[in-house]
């Protein structure tokens, strides 16, 4: 008897992060008009939450310098939740000004990763979250503040990251004013048992404010980790079309879990995502053409949907 399937969510959402997490690790700059076409295509395929870019200085990430323009276009698409990433208060001010619906701030659970990436300790980032929350409230903006806990399952610089430290920081982040939190396996160290254990513990800290799972497929565990998180009640996942995203510390490694593979797994299990496969796969082909020379990932594109699902969706 399978008791688990009775408790799985009936509906989940996939936030498309290809335009941010994906493109930021690809050095070639995708022209804005192609990004706009990608955004439009993702929307037409039924994706209703899209991370369109990042408010970091253009000299650091020229690939994402057109984020404000993408937000402006995304805001014309009814019902689309527009998400942007920002590393600090300065970025948050630009994010608030842009009119996006949600700003995502990464915090590293790994002390070493935090210092290398943001030149701040995790607790200094917590203080920044307090300042960002205050700026958001003062602006009168209804924008959501989400904090993504990166390296929650381990770190290429530091190695092991203690779950107790992840949970301590999670509580601190919530106390500092984050509306939502998520856990991220930034470097692909997690396995399904680790995911289940940490998400279960994190739900006890954050309740329904724990609202995202972000998994990389660096070592082939991406989909299995999504399923493990799903079993704990997570209903929102980040993913990249064609599994782009890579890992700066593991050359040649896969990136984020592929949006199309996630959508397929959920559909096959009878869990609604609102995504239209034909449109999403057509978009994948188009984007793959624009990313010539880059290594793409994902599995569904090789053989398409199984006959049984073609019949079911016809
Ligand atoms: Zn990522």
Automatic annotation (TrEMBL):
Keyword Transferase part of the UniProt annotation: yes
Keyword Nucleotide-binding included in the entry's annotation: no
An MF annotation (GO) of this entry: lyase activity
Top-rank taxon: Bacteria
Keyword annotations: Lyase, Metal-binding, Transferase
Segments forming domain Pyruvate carboxyltransferase: 12-281
SUPFAM superfamilies: Aldolase
Pfam family, one: HMGL-like
NCBIfam families named among the record's database cross-references: PRK05692.1
PANTHER family per UniProt: HYDROXYMETHYLGLUTARYL-COA LYASE
Family recorded in the similarity comment: Belongs to the HMG-CoA lyase family. Belongs to the alpha-IPM synthase/homocitrate synthase family.
This protein's name: Hydroxymethylglutaryl-CoA lyase
Organism: Polaromonas aquatica
